[in-house]
């Protein structure tokens, strides 16, 4: 098979300067009162569905299964990142959520926390492969910001009174940073928005070739900037999805942005779309910035080159009147967009010196979904 060479495309300041009227790209305003927590006493944020190999959401009598980052609601919601676990939940065809507890057994994770990833259903066996981020190290006294990509496979059982995934394998490290193109993220200290990335693995099967990939949030190694975010990619060496080849980054935001989070690929209309989430506060201070929102690029093949949607890359932004209302979006294959409610109805950043203010304003629950539309290099909220 002839494989085109992967090339790293740039997302740079001139793209952001092309930002224009956002009327067609503004997410509807969220009413916090109409969206109370679905699990009182537990904060929920990044979420992703169990998918079929073609990227569609797996359905079981109309219900979908979801993996959701969760933590006991602490006095300061920002402290949730230090105790985070992955939760298994289901959503009925009528929109009702149901809790099924922690997805992975206690003591299973080789790190100190479980961060975001993706999940693949194997209908021929009823198994589930979970790709996820291992944050920190087991037994560490203070949570560190080290990040590694792991995977595990378990058996899904669905009964009227319970949904479980058992007999998890491993977990096994999918692939490691090369410490050459990508930074080795083993830092003990850091601050939200300033840490480096090797996280958020998302599975994708190319319908044109059948080859499977994982995209992930990365940080460029050869950089002179403190803002060196990128979207990385690895290719499966065989059908087992147990052996991976690390490839050059798909997109580099070196000098522009520090965190291109939760990247994922979608094939649609003969084109390939790459989506990610980012926030205004992680753009380089000496250049242009965009709002908190969903960003994206389009290409004719997975290997690129990639060009920003709408010229700027911005696809869907929080409204100006509520710039922090939601975050960490997942774009489904049918272009439905899922995120979590962050700080709705707030026009200022989270107050670093006031945990009580943050707790009073934090959403910590799935946000109302919305849809986007795509036409070539253009994208808007449908």
Short description:
With 382 residues, this protein is an all-beta fold.
How would you portray this structure in words?
The protein is mostly beta strands and 382 residues long. The protein has one domain (9-381): Tachylectin-2, Chain A (5 Propeller), CATH 2.115.10.20. The chain has 2 helices and 25 strands. The strands form 4 sheets. Strands 2, 3, 4, 5, 6, 7, 8, 9, 10 and 11 form a 10-stranded mixed beta sheet that branches. The two termini are 38 Å apart. The model has no long low-confidence stretch (mean pLDDT 95).
The main sheet comes to: 10 strands, mixed
Number of domains: 1
Q: Taking Cα atoms only, what radius of gyration do you get, to the nearest Å?
A: 19 Å
Structural class: mainly beta
Q: What is the end-to-end distance? A: 38 Å
- Count of separate DSSP helical elements: 2
Q: Please report the first level of CATH classification, the CATH class.
A: Mainly Beta
Number of strands: 25
Level-2 CATH architecture? 5 Propeller
Estimate what percentage of residues fall within beta strands.
35-45%
N-to-C series of helices and strands: EHEEEEEEEEEEEEEEEEEEEEEHEEE
Q: Would you identify the regions where 5 or more consecutive residues have pLDDT less than 50? A: none
Shape: globular
What percent of the residues sit in helical stretches (DSSP H or I)?
Answer: under 10%
CATH topology tier name: Tachylectin-2, Chain A
What is the assigned CATH homologous superfamily?
Answer: Glycosyl hydrolase domain, family 43
Whole-number average pLDDT?
95
